[in-house]
Here is the input.
Amino acid sequence: MLAKLTALKMLPTLSLLLLMAPAAAFAEYKLNLQLPVTALGQTIYDLHTIITWICVVIFVAVFGFMFYSIYAHRKSVGHKAANFHEHFSVEVAWTVVPCIILIAMAWPATRALIQLRDTSDPDLTIKATGHQWKWGYDYIKGEGEGISFYSSLSTPLTQIEGKTPEAIAARNANKNYLLETDTTVVVPVGKKVRVLVTAADVIHAWWVPALAVKQDAIPGFIRDTWFKAEKPGIYRGQCAELCGKNHGFMPIVVEVKSAADYTAWVASQKANMKKAAVADAADKVWTAEELKARGEKVYAANCVACHQPNGKGTPPAFPALDGSKMVVGAKADQIDRVLNGKPGTAMSPFKHLSDADLAAVTTYTRNAWGNKAGDMVTPAEIKTARGGGGAPAAAAPAAAVAATAVLPAAVYFDTGKAAADADSKKTLDDVIALLKTNAGAKVEVTGYTDTTGNLNQNMELAKQRAVGVRDALMAGGVAKDRITMKPPATVEAGGDAKQARRVDIKPAG
Ligand SMILES: [Cu+2]
Here is the structure.
């Protein structure tokens, strides 16, 4: 009897032990959140810990009290039930005490939530766009502005399929299995990074636990979040929204670097972009060999996951390109399939690759393995297929434009107006005149906004102003394919409001 009683009295202690046991038993499997590397992340982590313990204490106290009461006052020991109703002080106590506990928990939690939403005054802004199934990144403000790339899963398909003992061993040894990408988001340490999150097809979510960010990416909307990493390192995350069959195959890797390393990274990215722009100049004459060599790389980076390095695919899910009638057949069909994909299948559009990359990869597949089409696809053919239309632009160098005093030009808008102000009409006329005399010159158009007010509305207005400028240029006789529309950019809040309602026209390239 007494033994039974002590055992029962120990129940709460036992349940607490049970709660903690797994942590001791599987030390290498962490049963907690990832360690945060941002101050706000630490706040969230601490909140989670303290609130969990508050819950544990309440749980133990309530159940301890309940079990004790049931046991000590049972009928078999002759206990007589007390019979009272409406005990004023008890009722007040059990209303007030939980209220105080709830407020004590909600207060710091709300403060953290408000901080979480405060995306003002970032040092740099990056746009993350979810695609089925990869992430696209555009650095749109701050050092690194203009850098833009895609980031795809880099875990080899053999490891994912695990068909051989070697592949399974490799998978087991791979610490970053399904958490590794071909390119990484690089950011400087100790700087406030604002991330604009959106999606191109279905809802995704940008989630990096160590940075305490998790934001849904919704097509047609721009949401934002931020983080300020306090420790250099590599932090991994995933898409956190069930976004289709390869939902688990679009990880996120953020590399936090020191200021100097970040600057070096920006410089190397920009140098690569310049090199690529020079290498892909519209007037470049490609040889079949050059295209094939480049195509092999493009294929390795974009197509092997499904069509395999040997071009055999994994039928029936992924058809072989080696020996495919479409690949060695009419160029136009193949270009269309690669450019636009096939809706409803895993063959998604590859429009985001450059003309040169697409020409290279189609040329490569037409002539690799057993395929012997013996011809080549040029970037100009891709351009035509894109609907860019017409003959390639006459080869007047863009530098001719940069050398004049007209560009870059800024067109200003009055508050709330969709039409340019009077001075700017003259600027537009100058730009049109300039473009008429430089037949090959192209321009980039960027609308600006600031960080005050409603972000989506601002972005929409900036876009409308940019479209207004493009339409004005087109009305002046400038062909549409000579105007590249850039994503809206932001100026610092608190600056000259006029600058936040401008549209820049810059020489392209
Ligand atoms: Cu996703």
Q: What stands out?
A: Residues 1-27, 389-404 have pLDDT under 50 and may be disordered.
